[in-house]
Structures are given as C-alpha cells and as structure tokens.
Amino acid sequence: MRLPSALPVALLTAGLAGCGVSDATPEPAPGTPSVSASAAEAPEARSAFAGLAALALDRRYAALYTLESGGSSREIVAAVADDGTWRVDIPAGALGGTAGVTIIRVPAGLYQCTLSTPSAPVSPTCIRVAEKGDKVPRRYDPRVQRLFRQWLPVFTDRKAPLAVSPVQQLAGVDGACYAVDSVTAALDQPVDVGIYCYSADGLLTGARVDFGLLKLVRSVAGPKSVQLPGPEVAGEPMGQNAPAPAPEPSLVAPS
After folding, report:
1. Cβ distance 68 to 27 under 8 Å?
2. For 46-130, where are the E strands, in sequence order?
3. Residue 166 parent element (H or E)
4. What is the pLDDT of residues 119-171, one digit of tens each?
5. Smallest Cα–Cα separation from 124: which of 8, 17, 204, 254?
C-alpha cells in the first residue's frame, strides 16, 4: 500500500512508505460520548489531561493515521516541524469528498492546498485562508486538522469550560484516553466533543469525534520545517460542499 503522493519528503524518507489507503470496510465509528456531570468534579483528570496537552504542544513528529467514518477509511498524515510549522493531509477532505486537501501553517499564514492522491492526481497549488494565528473559515474547514493543533491551547487552559473524565482505551488505540465535553450551552462549542487519547510523551494516538474515529498507525521524528507543497495562487479556496452538477446539454437544435 502507498501513502498519498503529495506527502512531505521527510515522511517518505523516514520510513512511512509502505502503508496506504485501505479498501476494507471498517467498523463504523460510534457516536460521540456524553460526559456525566461528575466529570466536571474530577480536577485530577482535568489536570492530567491538561498536562498531556501541554506535552502535545511541544511534540514534533510526522505520523500516519487512519480515519474511519461512514463505513470507509482514509489515511491522514500530520506533521509538526521543529520550527513550529505544521501540515495535515486529508484525502477526500473537500468538495463533498471528491477532492483531497492539505491544511498547512507556515510563517506567512494558514493555507489550503490541493492534495494529489492516486484517484485524483493534481499539481498542488495553495491559497491563503487565514492570517497567522487565525482559524480556517468554517465554509472551507475539513475539521480533521483541528484534532492535532487547534484544540491544544483550549485543553491546556484549566479555566476553559470543559468537563474531562478518564475513559477506557479506544479499541486499537494506545495511551491514556479522556472524554471531553463542553459545559456551556453555546452553539459554537470550544472544542470538538469526543474522546482524545495521548501517549505519555504527548503524541495523539487516537480520537473519536462526530466526524470519525482516528487511530495512529505509526510515527517518526518531525521534519525541521514544512513548506507549501505548491505555488501560492489567487482564487477561491475549495469549500466543503460537492460541486453542482454540470447542466445537461440542450437537445433542441438551434434555429
């Protein structure tokens, strides 16, 4: 099996080559957990989870994951570099699942890039979607990249409106697992509610959220830096909705 073709060279040379997309139909991911009110009364769990998230903020790695959702499985690759730049490759992450997408942060800002995959080979190009420190706008957001970087500052903030409780390990996932829920009724929740699992040194080993079940396959040391996989171009980023079908050709002969 093969990794998607547009992955950083550092991943390929570090020994991740040889794994790839699975055609097997995995067990569907269960729904996200409902955390009891007692979870908010477990400060030791909140502290332990915040400690792991702090380690994760400093962790530098390149890792291959599987994401199981809706009866199918995709490969996700995440890389956090020594200089703090990062990249997440998400096959079927845009245009209603018809296009692959890379979300990458470099010093110039946050970019969405087209991702070349065996089923949809393209020459990658990149469009800036946010300034440094901002988030991907919702209409362009494939969500998967949130699990690796976006929520970590919230997890480490012990004043954040979260309820945290230890739970049994997810099947096939190593590390300590915690159910994370919001204690606010706001529509815009502070994090993706679910179960998050980390190794003792802060590597995300798995997560179960409403858009799927993520599992670590393997990891290596992170690269020194990640760079845009293609040139920056102007234009509209790819959205999450499938493109409208092309209109049917008219059968009426011109007069």
Report:
1. yes
2. 61-69, 72-80, 86-94, 99-106, 109-115, 126-130
3. strand 162-167
4. 888 999 999 999 877 899 999 999 999 999 999 999 999 889 999 999 999 99
5. 8
> CA–CA separation, 11 vs 79, rounded Å?
8
pTM of the model: 0.81
- Rounded average pLDDT over 91-101: 94
Radius of gyration of the chain (CA): 19
Cα–Cα distance list, 127 to 94, 225, 229 (Å)? 14, 19, 11
The answer to whether 239 touches 95, Cβ cutoff 8 Å, is: yes
3-state class (DSSP) for residue 178: strand
Instruction: Name beta bridge partners: 245.
Output: none
- For residue 242, the model assigns a pLDDT of 85
Give me the phi and psi of 23, to 5 degrees please. Answer: -90, -5
Of 74, 79, 103, 78, nearest in space to 91 by CA: 74
Closest by CA to 40, choosing from 209, 151, 179, is 179
